[in-house]
Amino acid sequence: MTMPRQRGLTEQAADAAIDSACRLLRLPSIRNEFNEIADRAIRDQLTYRGFLAELLMAECDDRARRRSERRIKAAGFPRDKSLRSFDFDANPNIDPSTIHTLASCEWIKKSQPLCLIGDSGTGKSHMLIALGTEAAMKGYRVRYTLATKLVNELVEAADEKQLNKTIARYGRVDLLCIDELGYMELDRHGAELLFQVLTEREEKNSVAIASNESFGGWTKTFTDPRLCAAIVDRLTFNGTIIETGTDSYRLASTRARAEETVKAG
Hints:
Elements: H1 11-25, H2 28-44, H3 48-75, H4 96-102, H5 106-109, E1 114-118, H6 124-137, E2 142-146, H7 147-159, H8 163-172, E3 175-181, H9 188-201, E4 206-211, H10 225-236, E5 240-245, H11 249-264
Helix pairs in contact: 2-3, 3-6, 7-8, 7-9, 8-9, 9-10
C-alpha cells in the first residue's frame, strides 16, 4: 500500500497523515505522543533532526518498557516485589550492598547460582522475586515457580512422555527462580527429576532458590544423602549464599503496627 504524498498539507490533513502512517508502520508511541512532542519541539526551537530524534527515542523507550513488562509477566511472579520496597533496616542480616550488586545481574551473565536461606518472614521470597524482576527488566528471560509445583509438573510430564521437552523448556530461561524449596519432603522420583533440571542448567544458566532450611536440613526434603549432596553442590558451586536469619521482620512489623494502634487508641 502506497500513501499519497501532497505538499502544503493543512495541519488537520498532516495530523491525519501522521496517524495513518503510524498505524501502517506500527508506531503506537509516536502516534500517541506526536502532538505533545511537536509542541515541545516548537517551544524549545529544536532542529528537524532534534525533533526526529525525540520521536524515535520515544518509540524506542516505549518498546523497551513493553518488552520489560512482557518478560515480567512471562516470569509468572505471584505478586509484585521490588528492591525499593524492601526494608533493609528491619533485617540487618541482609546486606544492601550485596543485594544491589546482585541487581546488576552479573551473576546471571556468568550463569552462577543464588541461594537465599532463612526462616519464614525474613524476606527470602521478596528478594527472590525482586531480583528476578530486576533480571527481567534488564532483558533476561526469567521463570518463577514453587519447588513443589515444579516437581509435580515434571512428574506429570514424565507420565505423559513429555519430560525431555519440559526439562528443555526450563533449561532455556536465563534465570530459574525456585521458591519454598525445603518446605515439603520429596520422594526419590521427584527429587531425581528436579536434579535433572538443575543438571540441565549447570554452568549454562542461573538458578536462584529460597529455602527455609539450612543445607544441613535438606536431607528432610531429599531423603537420599548422595542425591541431596549432589543437589546442594549444583546450587552452591561458584554461587552466592545469603542467610536471611531467623527473626521474622514481617511478624515484627505486624507487632509494631499493633503497638502503634494501641498507643493511638
